[in-house]
Amino acid sequence: MNFSALEVSKEWHLQEILFCLAINPNNDQLWFGSSDSKIYQQSLSNEDSERISYGESGHSSYVTGMVIAGDTLISCGYDKKLIWWDTNSHEPIRNIAAHDKWIRRICVTPDGRLFSVGDDMQCRVWDLKSGDLIASFSDHAATTPHHFPSMLYALALSDDGSSLATGDRVGHVAIWDSHSFEKRAEIKTPDLYTWDPKQRRHSIGGIRCLSFSPDGTKMAVGGMGKVGNIDHLDGASRIEIFEIGTGERLQMIEDAKHKGLVEQLRWSPDGKFIVSAGGDHKGFIAFHETETGKQVHVVEHSGHIHGLHVNFQTETMFTAAHQRLAKWSFGQPKETAETTPTS
Amino acid sequence: MANHADSGHPKQSDSLDRRSMMRLMGSASGIGLAANMNQITALGESRLNDQLRASGKRVILLWLAGGASQLETWDPKPGRPTGGPFAQIQTTVPGIGISELMPKMSTHLEDTAIIRSLNTKIADHGTAYELMDTGRVKEAGVDFPHLGAILARELGNIESKVPDYVSMYTSTEGRRKGSAGFLGGRYNPMFLTDAMMPENIQRLESITDTDHRERAELRDTLSKLFARHHSHPSFEGHNSAYGRVRGLMASDYLFDIEREPESIRAQYGPTQFGQQCLVARRLVEAGVPFVKVARAWWDSHGQNFETHQELCADLDHCMSTLLDDLKERGLLENTLVISLGEFGRTPSINGSLGRDHFASAWSCTLSGCGIQGGSVYGKTDENGNTVVEGEMSAGDLYSTIFAALGIDHTKEYMLGSRPIPIADFDSTPCYSILT
Question: CA-CA distance, A23 to A303, in Å (whole number)?
């Protein structure tokens, strides 16, 4: 993959903030979740086609996560709900009040289980077909050391589905057996949380994303380094890579030129590179060597990136960002970007 | 040309040093005070009535420094593009909804009026702070007193042995010391910036309490002897200032929340804001007429929603606990609790999921003394961009505060030959939220 050739090949401008996306490569469809509480379906084979809106009886707040399982789309949001959708009829199949606070992320295992994390600091396991709750567990304190509500932002599943990781606002990562729900290990990343005890007396930051290496032995943790002025996303974007077995930190990658939160991380299939995306007022996508921490390439984007899909086989990427949806390619001829507002 | 009533007097230092305070009060507030009180006089026939009505009235200002978001507190817009992710919750007052970030306050609105229609126009921290802390736009040549100083003068007792204007602001960002302006140093705040306990008001260890008391008695005796042969009103003020110093020295216990039962401290919770609210309750209970508790820093240009999850949790818990505590002690009827900042935040959400400065359509609350609880005044449009009903200026808010406390908002101070109304020209109280 020629990282340095990365460029936007198609961009859609919208009014809303886009937080997440999912792609079904089999039918060439893309879905994204929005701040207007809706889910939109976009054809990729006909990029200028009118997108389909899901949502009149769906979420009532920001849609923050989604996964595809066959013909079913499962979404989560700040309304504390999990919703199963039929992607053919675009109608909800099941609607569950799943958490007591905001749901941040969901993921699905190959054997048909759905995991969700929310600001009630619980990781919950659901039967993908029935929607039944299988388990609920946590290793994360409800409040920060400074007596404020904590948040459970991050969730990741290993490629083989055997391990799960959860990460919170104060920099605590727990690694779990995804079948027994026993804690296997933990990692501390305190520098991703900034508490300002004097000037502003509140905090910012947190672990915003986690990603297992393809062999499941390493964990990449994304967020923002220490911040001077916590009124803004003014800290360097930061990635830390750990050996899970020993807890040893292998890499600490900070980029002061590209400030803000690392919202998404993806390892390359060979484990040699890691892709990160996020931003402050604006966005970035960066590529680093995992062995050395060396930055291979970085691209700036006009909107803070919240959602990322990378397909290393087709060498395409999609990003969901602040008022932007973009398709990226590595060295492909650039199409003329056109705008299609949602309303 | 306007006169500064306290011009030429020494400025009070930030910390309240005992010796400098005695010097200050002996000169500026003793001899000088008599001059001040002669020079700055209140006009209006209702002055005496006001004093009677205002007697025993107290104010606690919860200062939300940096600018809290009205959309995440008192004026939510759920489902609108500007509304953010939070839901609106129904309060115990039918028809009134507030942000889900304020669940405890949703059950405490029976004593609270929400004002949703402030349009104060100024959206930079420094100038907006001056506006909201004086109730009027800054004017060259006139050093307007801040709200605390006005209320210390209007509600305080000149003979009081407790402070009459205490301001707690322990964060450093946006810290600005309130000023008594032309009212003179007598009404400057006791300003706590680093510790919960005022510094330098304890008696020097090298002087025993007996020595200190005997020195005061000797000074008092000599003063009275002197006064037999030299009659002047300033001497009385001089003596009262010395008496007041000893009273202030003895008031340090009011800042010591360890004296409160554990159950009460637990109710206020572990945060500094909670502890300061408890100090505020102790102060007003002891007769301090104005206490400002600043909770910084709400300036959420990035991550507005996370910031408000933290800060609103603190505000919601501490404000509701304070109102409960005041009510249970029978103090709320005579104590006005104000929650206010220098401005609100933009309805639009920026790329960092933040909200920026916004002064065109924002909110505050008034609770307790003189307030028609369970009421909402004013209305913003469906996205919160503009006021569509009941626009209120900073001066109108001040008039309303004064009226709630039984102070005639048309009262004027004479600064030399120039009358200065305590609330800005053309401002009017919002009578619909007053009892």
Answer: 20
* All domains in chain B, ordered by first residue: 18-433 (3.40.720.10)
Interface of B with A in 295-314 (CB under 8 A): 295-297, 299-303, 306-307, 309-311, 313-314
Record: contact A200-B171, CB cut-off 8 A: yes
Owning domain of residue A34: 3-330
B266 in reach of chain A (CB within 8 A): no
Residues of A in contact with B170 (CB under 8 A): 201
CA B100, B102, B104, B106 dihedral sign is: negative
CATH code, domain carrying A217 = 2.130.10.10
The helix or strand, by DSSP H or E, that contains position B421, with its residue range, turns out to be strand B418-421
A163-168 vs B387-389, strand pairing mode: unpaired
Residue A40 exposure: Cα atoms within 13 Å on the Cβ side:
26
- Write the pLDDT tens digit of every residue in B271-302: 999 999 999 999 999 999 999 999 999 999 99
Judge whether A290 lies within some domain. Answer: yes
ipTM here: 0.94
Query: What residues contact residue A340 under an 8 Å CB cut-off, 6+ apart?
Result: A12, A13, A48, A50, A51
B386-400 pLDDT, tens digit per residue, is 999 999 999 999 999
A194–B contact, CB cutoff 8 A = no
Q: What is the DSSP letter of B223?
A: H
Q: Which of B426, B251, B312 is nearest to B69 (CA)?
A: B312
DSSP state of B29: I
